[in-house]
Every structure is written in structure tokens, then in C-alpha cells.
Amino acid sequence: MKTKFLVSALLLSISVIMYAQETQTKVESQEAGYKTAFKRNKAGDNWFIHFGAGAQTYFGDFDTDADLTNRITVAPTISLGKWFSPYWGLRLKAQGGAIHGFENAGDFMQRNRYYNLHLDALWNLSNYWGKYSETRVFNFTPYVGLGFAHRFDNTQSLPATMTNNAPFPTDYARYSNAISVNTGLMFGFRLSKRVNLDFDLGAAVVPDYFDRIVRKAENEIIFTATTGFTINLGKTNFEVVEPMDYALINDLNGKINALRSERDNLAAQLPCPKCPEVKPVAPVEEINYVPNVVFFRLNSAKIDANQQISVYNTAQFMKNTGEKIKVVGYADKKTGTSSYNLGLSEKRAKAVAKELTTKYNIPSQNIVVEWKGSEEQPYPENNWNRVVIMSAQ
């Protein structure tokens, strides 16, 4: 009965985590600027592998009667997992080693070997409750999961163990396998982009028969305390989806409509029979200036499709005039460090220059590439400074 209750509680916990994540995503999409939304990463991104070891102890019928030093054993662990967002992920964890079971008020000790393979749902509360940061030093992550536990054959003789006044069966094969319910807390410390130091406090609930000493309890627990290193594989961060600035769009649309209205009014006044004759004026030499910009998303050097028109217009200008241009990359000041932003602005400027040369066959000697990082901010609005500005020399 207790096992069914624990399994039900576990499934309920996983459902709550998944529902919270779904709700979080909906809130993010509806409240731009209040909650952060993230791009869906590729299948090969945000994987990790963990190697660790520590101590474990078995809590059975008579284990508390035994000396604690005899109950503690070494607990090796290995895990493979993936983060599907900064908030939640899945991992497959294997733990095992030796566990000691006790009989006769702790006087008799079994030396058992086992393994427990379980799939866990991870919930990063540090990111969920706080603001997501790729460089966060500390992460607090509870988890729950279901698994399969196997106890290896033990040829060691056992004293008579009674269950309902009957000896425990000597054929232990059917009592060597069990469904395990697993839960715990992970405490992670970021050492570098690729390496974390993690501490894991876990508990695996197994049936009473798993240690082959059956008395009164329906379930017993294997407690583990381990530490180890997590290696992050593939892409390690999540890209923020920049919300659309509808106020800016509405403002630009209003200006466009006002210009159209002014144009129509001027067109309606032509021809102008009462206007005095004006002598023709010599044409003014056109100023060769390219007021073209390419805006980028946060922490990105990829040119979005809606920004290609600016690159195209610049390429046509260069082909028609033979002018050289300067391509200057920038980054916003409120995100990242100065050194990181300098590198990011370099990638942005070179991405635009590469697009001009490879897609539109503009000679590279006609393009001067510079990058300013976040030390220079060409626009008063912070988000607008994730930009490359192209101008004629």
C-alpha cells in the first residue's frame, strides 16, 4: 500500500513540475518584458554527464541497531542528462556498490551488492525563482524519479529470518529486483563554462524484501551523499527571445502614415498656376552616405531574415557608386562584460562583411571592418545598440 502511495506521489510531483513549466512558458509569451522566454535549442544542445562518488547507508529493519561505521559504504554514481530549458531537464542516473543489511539486533551483517538505475525529472529553482544567467555560480535543483533496483546474488548464509512465522524463502531470485522511487537535492557550483562541482543528497525507496530481511516495514530506504564533476556538452546556454517593441513599431507606422498624408496633400496642389516661375538650379552633387543598420538579437551574431534588406541595399549602393564602406559592430551596455561585448561586436561586424562578400560579391578590399564593443553606444535606447552600422567612407 505504501509503495503505491509513493509512486502516486512521485507521478503527481512530476506532473506539477511539467505544469509549472508549461504555465511559465505561457506567462513568458504573454508578458513580454516581465518574464524571460527562450529559444528552443537543438537536440544536441545542453547535454551533460556526471561522475561522482560518496557514501551511502541502508535503513532496514535492524540497521539502526548496528554501529554506524559498519553501515556506511562507498557509493559510485554516473549520470547522463539534458536540460530542455533553464528551468527543467531529465537525467538517467546509475548508482550502486555495496550495502550492508543487519539481523539479530545488528549482530549479523550481510554484505550485499546492488545497482539502482533511475530516470529523474530535474527542476532548477535558482533559475525558476531568479533571473536566468549563464554564469550563475550556484544552482539549487530538487529532483524526483522512478527506477529499477537489482540486488546481486549473495552466497553468504543467513540466519533464520521469520515473516509471519515462516522462514524467508531460500530462492532469492524473485526478491532481487524492485521498483525504486528516488528523490533528492542537488547543489551545483559553476567552475567554468564546461565544468560544475555538484553535491547530491538522495534517497531511494525500495521494498522491504530488497535486503532479504523481512520483518515489519513495507519499504526501506537507501540514503546517499555524493559529490562529483559535471561536464557540459554541446551548446551550454539558452538564448533569450527578444520581445517585439510594439510601441516603437506603432510610432514608426504613425510617422510613415504622416509622411504619406503630407505627400498626398502636396500632390493635390500640383500643378501650381499661381506660383512664380522658378529658374532651374544646377543639380547638387549627391552625398554618398549609407544610413543602413543591421540589428541583432541578444547575445547573437546571426543576421535575421528581416535584416537582410539593409545588407542588400548597401550592396546595391556599392555596386552603383563604387564607394567603399565602413562596417562597425556594437553591443549593448547592460548585458555582458566589456571584454565579452567587444568580441561579440567583432563577430557581428564580420558577419555583415562576410554576407556582403559571399552573397553579393562585394570585394573585401572595399569594406573596412571595425568593432567598438559596448564602450561606445550610438543610440540612447540600450536594446538598439545590438547593431552593426554601415556608412560610406
CATH topology of the largest domain: Porin
Total DSSP E strands: 14
Unreliable parts? 18-34, 156-168, 284-288
Strand content: 25-35%
The helix/strand class is alpha+beta
Largest sheet: 8 strands, antiparallel, barrel
The CATH class designation of the largest domain is Mainly Beta
H/E series: HEHEEEHEEEEEEHEHEHEE
Supply the number of structural domains.
2
- What is the average per-residue confidence, as pLDDT, rounded to a whole number? 80
The first-to-last residue Cα distance is 80 Å
Architecture of the largest domain, CATH level 2? Answer: Beta Barrel
Give descriptors for this structure.
393 residues, alpha+beta, Porin, 60s Ribosomal Protein L30, Chain: A, eight-stranded antiparallel barrel, four-stranded mixed beta sheet, 6 helices, 14 strands, elongated
Task: Summarize it.
The chain contains six helices and 14 strands. It is α+β, with helices and mostly antiparallel strands. The protein folds into two domains: 2-233, Porin; 289-392, 60s Ribosomal Protein L30, Chain: A (2-Layer Sandwich).
Helix-strand layout with pairing:
Elements: H1 2-30, E1 47-59, H2 68-71, E2 73-83, E3 88-103, E4 108-123, H3 125-129, E5 138-151, E6 162-163, E7 166-167, E8 177-190, E9 195-207, E10 219-233, H4 246-268, E11 292-295, H5 308-321, E12 325-329, H6 338-360, E13 367-371, E14 387-392
Parallel strand pairs: 12-13
Antiparallel strand pairs: 1-2, 1-10, 2-3, 3-4, 4-5, 5-8, 6-7, 8-9, 9-10, 11-14, 12-14
